[in-house]
Amino acid sequence: MKLLKDIGEFGLIKRIAEAEKIFDKEVIVGIGDDTAVLKYKKDCYLLLTTDILVENIHFDKKATPFQIGWKALAVNLSDIAAMGGIPKYGLVSLGLKKETSINFVDELYQGIRSLAKKFKVKILGGDTVSSPRTVINIALTGEVEKKYLTLRNGAKIGNKIYVTGILGGSISGKHLSFIPRVKEARYLVKNFHPTAMIDISDGLLADLKRVCERSKLGARIYQKKIPLSKEVSLEDALTAGEDFELLFSLSRKYAHLAKSSKVHITQIGEITKKGIVLLDEKGKNVPLSKEGFNHFR
Amino acid sequence: MKLLKDIGEFGLIKRIAEAEKIFDKEVIVGIGDDTAVLKYKKDCYLLLTTDILVENIHFDKKATPFQIGWKALAVNLSDIAAMGGIPKYGLVSLGLKKETSINFVDELYQGIRSLAKKFKVKILGGDTVSSPRTVINIALTGEVEKKYLTLRNGAKIGNKIYVTGILGGSISGKHLSFIPRVKEARYLVKNFHPTAMIDISDGLLADLKRVCERSKLGARIYQKKIPLSKEVSLEDALTAGEDFELLFSLSRKYAHLAKSSKVHITQIGEITKKGIVLLDEKGKNVPLSKEGFNHFR
User: How far is A25 from chain B (nearest CA, A)?
Assistant: First the structure.
């Protein structure tokens, strides 16, 4: 009998996506990007995304309820950011133990609300149930002007590859308090029109692979160019999940302009015809094995 | 220290709702109805809802994966129905044990898809993570013509109160395979313009109380008129959750027309000025204590 741990998270997602053939004139993007994209207003699309966090998997006993609430919204905001969009409305599903203190719930909501306020997101309800483990799901809508919508599949050969911020920080706890790159994404789509974009949720290599697969191209990245957190190894930065920085590609024209970016971005490589290649300081191929954080393994 | 089980699910929802003051011209209804309601197209509103199911709470080991998937979508469809709306797009969040067989996941998705197909709902993605207990959250959008939107707060004194179908069936397992009343709701809003509507998810009394609270009125219901499942006591029908029938009120004009309804509905009482009163066969007050299924207690 085949188990989930045999095919892994990515195998499962592929399996689900392949079974879902969407034929609907209202659906611009179904499964396969950071959010779903639907027809909406004359000039903009509706974005829909959802993320679930489970106790002992996405947060442990050391996480404060404030951090849990913050993170549950932040991971969704990061998905909206990766489309170039503006987050709008959230629905919160909470599974809580009967012995949970009211104080815990209040603090968790404070975590959600303080981040929501920062990005003008409104929480419009949800569902609250009893659960033997704490679990929180947030579903979030957003909108994006048609001209700013940025998918994973638009990278072109010769495009330069960039990341925002610094990688590897999630290991030292950043994943519980990160600021999703919504403002940075808006700056990027308005000024540099990225050809493809994704948020780094499963590690640089895994998410770069997604962009390459969707764009049907490859990538070459340079070890020495990758912006690393202190105390973090290159391998951690490449494969650790939950950095929630943006990974994107720019055409040559905008790559030139991007040198004066007001947002902290670093060029780390370029889009190629096929295969993902990492070059070390001497220009030699680094063998790649791990693919980033994979649930079920 | 105050615990969740001290204030219960309804206390918690009230606490959350009171903290969320929504001032947003795009939001027609925030917290406090079966779904959130947003501005959308010229003639219709966008509906948003979400529901989470947790192993051993909403389904047990006897439930097949097909039933779990079916129920996860059905409870959301029921919320869209209660607004008079048409369900559209779903996002599925799944928390699964590592030892889950691929077969389990495939069957669970078959449960979701067969119900989705029945109501022309498209699944546009979601999130899949590892979890020590099976948990599934579905977020669903819908749309409703402005003229058909039916809220909980519109009941008027003298309105007749109705339910669809037969109550109490959830106890014998119906809650795992019920057909959400989407078609019935559409028939009702088109033909009888209900003044208020809700789906019975926490028991007739608890959900009637919600309509009365939101409409700032009361209700009188007649024991002998309540349509009961065989093998189910009156108390079960009044207080058992997960019937997922519709409870609604009609003005006198439409109550007259409703006698020839093509959908199975039963008049069970009327809206009054205040208080919820249940009358037995002899017209005597039945003392009411329980309020229906309440998580955390």
Answer: 12
Q: Is B8 on the interface with A (CB under 8 A)?
A: no
Q: Does the pLDDT value for residue A186 go beyond 60?
A: yes
Give residue B295's pLDDT.
53
* CATH for A199: 3.90.650.10
Whole-number Å distance between alpha carbons of B151 and B199: 11
- Searching chain B, which residue's CA lies closest to the CA of residue A20? B123
CA A227, A229, A235, A239 torsion-angle sign = negative
Residue B143 lies in a domain: yes
CA proximity to B127, closest of A83, A199, A138: A138
- Short-list A163, A260, A247, CA closest to A212: A247
Asked whether residue A108 falls in the same domain as residue A120, the answer is: yes
Alpha-carbon span B257 to B272, nearest angstrom: 21
| Preferred mutation among B41, B59, B135, B136 to probe A, highest tally of A CBs within 10 A | B135
The residue to which tokens 């119900």 are assigned: B115
Q: Is A261 inside a domain boundary?
A: yes
Mutate which of B22, B75, B129 to disrupt the A interface (most A C-beta within 10 Å)?
B129
Contact criterion met (CB below 8 Å) for B235 and B248:
no
pLDDT digits (tens, 9 = 90+) for A31-75: 889 999 999 999 999 999 999 999 998 888 899 999 999 999 999
- As for the ipTM of the complex, it is 0.91
Nearest CA in chain A to B54: A131
Q: Whole domain around residue A171: which residue ranges?
A: 150-279
The reply to whether residue A95 touches residue B54, judged by beta carbons under 8 angstroms, is yes
Residues from chain A contacting residue B50 (CB–CB below 8 Å): 50, 91-93, 126-127, 137, 139
Residue A292: pLDDT band (50, 70, 90) is very low
pLDDT, tens only, B1-43: 788 888 887 777 777 776 667 778 899 998 889 999 999 999 9
Say yes or no: A288 contacts chain B, CB-CB below 8 A. no
Extract the residue ranges of chain B whose pLDDT is less than 50: 292-293, 297
Name the residue of chain B whose CA is nearest to A94's CA. B52
Question: What's the CA gap between A258 and A66, in Å, rounded?
Answer: 36
Least confident window among A235-239, A246-250, A268-272:
A235-239
Residue B296 within a domain: no
Residue A291 covered by a domain: no
Write down how long chain B is.
297
- Name the percent of chain B in helix, strand, coil, to the closest 5: 35, 30, 35
Does the beta carbon of A89 lie under 8 angstroms from any beta carbon of chain B?
A: yes
The total number of structural domains that make up chain B: 2
Partners of A79 on chain B (C-beta within 8 Å) are none
**Final residue belonging to a domain, choices A113, A147, A181:** A147
Radius of gyration of chain B (CA): 19
Q: Is residue A128 domain-shared with residue A164, that is, in the same domain?
A: no
Q: Are residues B227 and B241 in the same domain?
A: yes
**Residue B8: what pLDDT?**
80
Q: What is the mean pLDDT of residues A179-207?
A: 96
Interface of B with A in 114-133 (CB under 8 A): 122-133
| Cβ contacts from A onto B, under 8 A | 230
